[in-house]
Write the structure tokens for this entry.
Amino acid sequence: MSDSSWSWAAELMSRFLKKPARLQHLLERLPSVMDPGTRRRCQFLLYGTVRHWTFLEEGLDEWLKKRPRVGLRAALLVATFEIMTDPEKGPQIVDHAVRGIGKKYSKSERGLANAVLRKVSTRMSERLSTVPTDAATIAVRYSHPRWMIDRWEQEFGFEGALRMAEWNQREPDLYAFSFKEGAPLEIGEASRWERYSNLTNEAWPAVQEQLDAATIYIQNPGARLAPEMLAKFFEKGRVLDMCAAPGGKSLYLDKTLGDAASEIVALDLAGSRLERLKSNMSKFGSKRIRVMAGDLFEVEVKSTGSFEAVFLDAPCSNTGVMQRKPDVKWRPVKEDWEKLTVLQERMLDKAASLVGEQGLLLYSTCSIDGGENEGVIDRFLSSATGQAFERLECSTSLPWESGHDGSGACALRRR
């Protein structure tokens, strides 16, 4: 392993400890000239350390009288994650980490790191074999906030909470769907989901070649569920995709609905996300897809006309995608859920105003939380606006059962 990947991972982890942020944003700080191999290793170390944060910290705290300053603490966490990934190579990993720490910190801090990491290494295999027996031990062993585990245990039972936490700690697979009609991808391994191929073991240059040729789009199979539910009930007409950036669901709708969709309007707020949406539509999109900049709360039917289907993929807690975005579990607090559902209900009410006579309203999230899914739908249907709609179908995909990202989706029709 290069010193560069390790030192950068420690630096970015230090920034994360000061203020938990989106890991993708932290990775943007890496030098543009960094070679791809070093960049991938740095990302592996950073994501893994954040993914297993609580477990790693408990292992260190066992041997520390008090936590060291944040930079050294970050370096110790990264080193402990490395030991976790390969306990048998603990002594070599400790030697490398201590050399790196010695280049930046004092002699006493170097000595502390050496002593603590060697003790951590001797206990790692034993700690990894711990079998959780309650919410508290799940939270530590699988590194989740305790209140989150409690919430899942209440909704899915102990076994469900345990399996969800285990799922989130696995390294995610990389999937892509093909734009070639009826043809499997030319790279990767076949998956159990039509159109999708598993690219996890594929060399990145081969993946990049297909991306450059616009024959594939990187997307988890969980993203297909809401568009396929809409397609089940859609006949023909115009579709409005609200909160469309970066555009993956618009693209999947386009391929799934085909000529039945006369137009797909992909709407999002002006800014960096909209620019990414435009870029993706320019590269991968079709003549049916039209990008529109705007605030969904300001879109009026008198200017856009009504739609035969409105698709709202609402902002949510992202609990269904924590395997791919481990920073997500450390950013929200328990009180955020109530704020989210209020926003989701407002957005759904607005989306409903754009649905034409006997039109479809498809609501989805990348959350497994019942309060954000059917809970929002139940409250909407009992509202003045919602009474004009009927429920057609609702479903929630649980990652430990489906084998892909979790999500929720509900299809409604104007009466």
Summary: The CA atoms of residues 147 and 334 lie 7 Å apart. The chain has four domains: 3-128, 135-168, 175-218, 221-414. Residues 175-218 form one domain.
